[in-house]
Design brief:
The structure is a homodimer. By secondary structure, chain A is α/β, with parallel strands linked by helices. Chain A contains 14 helices and 13 strands. In chain A, helix 3 packs across helix 4. The longest helix of chain A has 21 residues. Chain A is globular.
Chain lengths: ~400, ~400
């Protein structure tokens, strides 16, 4: 063991698990039809409604978050249906790929990476595409760090007679996301980000309008089985609640514990904590003399993306941080490879996770030849935490 | 705590986890692109080949076992393709439901529940259906306990120019299953049965012929994304190995430990242990004066199905066993509801799990009014274990 022998995971999924979440998975496994599991299952289904801010059933699948996105496309899109995907990064492109895979008449509007999707972007794209049945877009784009105003986008989609499906895999539990109030037809998410659980559970909320559209799409030839909404809805609404396929029971136990932590912290408390963590990270980056990628006021508080300065090998930063300091952060993806470093702070994170990561960033950039005053970033983060006061001082667990 | 306060899980998935499998899930979570996870991931991918007895890549999905079955249908079946599902129980019907959901020209041959599918059944069904592209059937039918001779069925399917896809969710790791030697085109399975892991990982082997057929099916309009074989194959074959979507990292860690246990026990050892456990369960049932459901020599060693004698309320048996003795077994499904009780012994089971369950069965049937001599079943099981000798005496862990 040396001074850099402890691991710090600062990636946007998998994210670190609270010890009480980890430990519950080591308990004896439960039969999915036993009363002991059904109690947990029903409690989780109720807890998810709180987190998604919806009265609708939150449908659950044993899958990665992409499975929930696929459920939206499989249930809503029949071959030849006109679909508009509006993306501003790598994860937004997944909607386009999924729609194509399902035979949609796909229109894909791509906004420059690092920018958010403005209401005008959607208006123009809808006008250009003509009669669109469903708009698919992203709440927090994890590849660039930006947050889209999905309430405004939903409003526009609806005015054009289209449904809207949202990828909220990284946004859920980080920033406010009002499924019902904003009339979001589908919100897809997963267990492995701000919900502080391992990957393997996918979630989809479905509005009444979307359920109706799914029935119509089925009549036009849309197809689904494993990700079928009706099948899952029917099972979850039964009492005792049931699942059409064997549920991932250990992950439900983990989620049960994680949701009770979120309930204690309260949703506003969770959002405020993430806001303070993200602000500290951004202030630290600026104090180090580095540049943020993307406009600061458009950031989703999920990841802080740092532009790699000229003269520094961008791909070397995450590698050095991991291999030397054992702090795992992500680099840029696709076109952004080597150009940015992404520090994630969605989930079970506190002030000292940011402090440690900023310190590691300072040391890594210094080692790679950037002119960095050691401690400058950390000082800025400390200042943010001191000013933030109570919310960050409350226990997370 | 009373004398019946300890829980015994005797169901065919979820099955009990070895303590070392449970515990590894409580370790700090790993980033899926970190070297520490990739090492586990690559080792698991290799280990799965051994268990499936194949040189082909075993494709893995974050999903229930049904997800692997869906991958077969989604990749191989274009709308209008003629498909033959041959079933002999509730799980076999899933292939028919999946094929219909994907728009196949489905022919479904149903063999009486409790019987196995004979080669003649398949010959006749193929002759009746005409040109079939794919035959889907079941290795071990968990709802009735029977084992189908999938080597013989594969041979017939191939002679008719059809591919064959096998549901081996409950058979894998219980009975011999030679994917390559028997030329099985697709073998679908899951993590939560004999692989001694929680539910949430699905597996599919794909023969070269099936990969080729999938490319042709895609050209005819077959669609897949989350369960797409090419995408997953490409990722798994990369070095470092990668996954198109976030893998269920905790379940891979669990599977890594479980596969190492299977490797130490050896596959023949695992099969022999299950054979002895199942024989002991069957002899016990007969010694209790009860009847087995389905011919004894057609049993898959996965579950022992007991016919509920006249005068006993069949649905009360599993309920009493669970509520009073805390031994969880399954009843019959669909048409078999109330008619049979199923004791599962696939996975992390040893002699004393059978002894305890037989004792619970004796007490439950006695309480419900059947004429049972207490201890008779247990004595028969003991006799089997004593005669079996070494294989069951080896440590499982």
């Amino acid at each position: 063991m040396n001074v850099f022998s402890k691991d710090y995971l600062m990636t946007a999924g998998p994210t670190p698990l609270p010890p009480q979440v980890s430990q519950v998975m080591a308990e004896p496994i439960l039969y999915h039809r036993a009363p002991a599991f059904i109690e947990i299952y029903e409690r989780v289904l109720t807890g998810l409604k709180t987190v998604f801010q919806t009265e609708s059933e939150v449908l659950t699948f044993a899958a990665s978050g992409t499975g929930a996105m696929e459920s939206a496309v499989a249930n809503l899109v029949a071959p030849g249906d006109r679909v508009l995907a509006v993306s501003c990064g790598k994860f937004g492109e997944r909607w386009a790929e999924l729609s194509e895979a399902y035979g949609a008449d796909l229109h894909h509007h791509q906004v420059e990476w690092g920018r958010r999707i403005e209401p005008e972007d959607l208006e123009q794209a809808l006008a250009a595409a003509g009669d669109v049945r469903v708009v698919f877009t992203t709440h927090s784009e994890t590849s660039t760090g930006v947050l889209n105003d999905v309430a405004a986008l939903a409003d526009i989609a609806h005015r054009h007679g289209a449904l809207i499906g949202i990828d909220a895999v990284s946004a859920l539990g980080v920033v406010d996301l009002q499924t019902d109030a904003w009339e979001l037809d589908v919100v897809a998410s997963g267990s492995q980000k701000a919900l502080m659980c391992p990957p393997g559970l996918a979630f989809a909320t479905v509005s009444d309008r979307a359920h109706e559209a799914a029935r119509e799409a089925r009549a036009r030839g849309a197809r689904s089985y494993y990700f079928d909404w009706e099948k899952t809805l029917k099972g979850q609404r039964k009492r005792p609640a049931d699942s059409p396929f064997t549920p991932a029971v250990t992950l439900f136990r983990a989620l049960d514990v994680a949701l009770s932590m979120i309930e204690r912290e309260t949703l506003p408390g969770v959002f405020e904590r993430h806001a303070v963590l993200a602000r500290a990270a951004r202030e630290a980056v600026k104090a180090m003399g580095l540049e943020l990628f993307g406009p600061e006021d458009e950031n989703a508080n999920v990841v802080t993306a740092v532009r790699v300065p000229d003269g520094v090998d961008g791909t070397a930063v995450p590698k050095l941080m991991r291999d030397r300091f054992r702090v795992t952060v992500a680099g840029g993806q696709a076109d952004l490879k080597g150009k940015i470093v992404r520090v994630a702070h969605c989930g079970y994170y506190g002030a000292f996770d940011i402090i440690s990561t900023v310190a590691a960033l300072e040391m890594a950039f210094r080692e790679l030849g950037a002119e960095i005053s050691l401690g400058a970033g950390v000082a800025a983060a400390e200042q943010v935490f001191l000013e933030a006061g109570v919310p960050t001082a409350q226990p997370v667990g």
